[in-house]
From TrEMBL:
Keyword set includes Transferase: yes
Catalytic activity: (2S,6S)-2,6-diaminopimelate + 2-oxoglutarate = (S)-2,3,4,5-tetrahydrodipicolinate + L-glutamate + H2O + H(+)
Cofactor(s) required, per the database record: pyridoxal 5'-phosphate
Organism annotation: Murimonas intestini
Recorded metabolic or biological pathway in which this protein acts: Amino-acid biosynthesis; L-lysine biosynthesis via DAP pathway; LL-2,6-diaminopimelate from (S)-tetrahydrodipicolinate (aminotransferase route): step 1/1
TM segment ranges: none
Binding site for substrate: 15, 42, 109, 132, 188, 288, 384
Protein name as catalogued: LL-diaminopimelate aminotransferase
Keyword Transferase on entry: yes
Entry EC no(s): 2.6.1.83
Binding site for pyridoxal 5'-phosphate: 72, 108-109, 132, 188, 219, 247-249, 258, 288
Residue span, Aminotransferase class I/classII large domain: 35-401
Sorted UniProt keywords: Aminotransferase, Pyridoxal phosphate, Transferase
Length: 405
């Protein structure tokens, strides 16, 4: 008789966005005339840039002609895209990353979930708290996280690194020694960032203790300040301790198109085994390549026209971020993020829990955000708003929140 992977049964229900959906639907039903403004889910709303659309159209035409048709893509990505990434995202920032160290995929969610497969089940992971839930849940599925304490909402074998107002939402180096460290900067959900010297300390720590850092740089395009690193490979020694995840979802609006990549430098080894070879084996066996037309669309992101258009797209969202940030400050809220990331992280007023504040905002202002507690225990007492809405809706939402007093 077959047996299931019992690790799946350990997963606490992830009710965050379904609970939000239900609450919003119930409120809308009772208040059919109320216009609800959604600043909750982290999804883009602007259409694809013209340069991307043009590349997609051209690639579709190629697929319709036997002379230019493309079948299976190379498992690890087309050379034209890997080269464009190596030049634009790395060489031009002074990072030494070769095209064959870049693995093209259909997005950073899959990669951030799959990467743990190449590590021993005995490895101990460390995550920020609050955190993007994929890192933890995929390690639960693999059986790496021990037992769940439903009161504390924590796993026995996970090292949690609290990110709160007290430490500026940047984790401190852990006392217990983790083997695998997940970092994400600019951060979802807190919108915080790390300085280059701050990240260098993590790279030094990982090299010193023999840990590996899995660095999620999905929001790199939103960085506006000078001292914030765009890639972990800007730090000295990162080639021997860090894997970097990137996505076209947030910088180019590809959430529904699907494209991302993972960088595994050849110098990153466990003893004398390069992780590069393990990930190449895993990717080549379980993944059959991102679509040709999508990789051509990705290439267009690095064209001159694409770069200009996408800079404007990011600026559009960051204008929203500024409106939210400044509006909330004026209304007396304690806020952070929103400068190098499309997320604003606010402290709930008084002693309101993050779910109480969710109800307050929905019922009184018709605005939907995301309760911080949904991202981990240290997210309690905080709340996330996103800059991914339309400009008009963002302005209206903030006006309504200001009127709450
Ligand atoms: C949105 C997001 C991603 C990107 O996921 P895709 O699968 O590439 O769309 C990765 N990491 C974080 C933290 C995110 O918020």
């Amino acid at each position: 008789m077959f047996k299931i992977n019992e690790n799946y049964l350990k997963l606490p229900g992830s009710y965050l966005f379904s609970t939000i959906g239900k609450k919003v639907a119930a409120y809308q039903e009772k208040n059919p005339d109320r216009k609800i403004i959604r600043l909750g889910i982290g999804d883009v709303t602007q259409p694809l840039a013209p340069a991307v659309i043009e590349a997609l159209h051209n690639a579709v035409d190629e697929m319709g002609d036997s002379a230019t048709f493309h079948g299976y893509a190379p498992d690890l990505g087309y050379e034209f895209l890997r080269k464009a990434i190596a030049v634009n995202d790395y060489a031009q920032r002074g990072c030494d990353i070769q095209p064959d160290e870049i693995f093209v995929s259909d997005g950073a969610k899959c990669d951030s979930g799959n990467i743990q497969e190449i590590f021993s089940i005995d490895n101990k992971i460390a995550v920020c708290d609050p955190v993007y839930p994929v890192y933890v849940d995929t390690n639960v599925m693999a059986g790496r996280t021990g037992t769940y304490d439903s009161v504390k909402e924590m796993w026995s074998d996970v090292i949690y690194m609290p990110c709160t107002q007290e430490n500026g939402f940047v984790p401190e180096l852990p006392e217990a020694a983790p083997d695998i460290i997940y970092l994400c900067f600019p951060n979802n959900p807190t919108g915080s960032t790390i300085t280059k010297s701050g990240l260098q300390a993590w790279v030094d720590y990982a090299n010193r203790t023999g840990a590996v850092i899995i660095y999620d740089a999905a929001y790199e395009a939103y960085i506006s300040e000078k001292d914030v690193p765009h890639s972990i490979y800007e730090c000295e020694g990162a080639r021997t301790c860090a894997i970097e995840l990137r996505s076209f979802s947030k910088n180019a609006g590809f959430t529904g198109v699907r494209l991302g990549f993972t960088v595994v430098p050849r110098d990153l080894k466990a003893g004398d085994v390069p992780l590069h070879d393990l990930w190449a084996r895993r990717h080549g066996t379980k993944y059959n390549g991102a679509p040709y037309i999508v990789q051509r669309a990705g290439e267009a992101v690095y064209s001159d026209a694409g770069k200009t258009q996408l800079k404007e797209q990011v600026a559009y969202y960051m204008k929203n971020a500024k409106i939210i940030l400044e509006g909330l400050k004026k209304a007396g809220y304690s806020v952070s993020g929103g400068v190098n990331a499309p997320y604003i992280w606010l402290k709930t007023p008084g002693s309101m829990t993050s779910w109480e504040f969710f109800d307050h905002l929905l019922f009184k202002a018709g605005v939907v955000g995301t309760p911080g507690a949904g991202f981990g225990p240290s997210g309690e007492g905080y709340f996330r708003l996103t800059a991914f809405g339309s400009h008009e809706n963002t302005i209206e939402a903030i006006e309504r929140i200001k009127k709450l007093g």
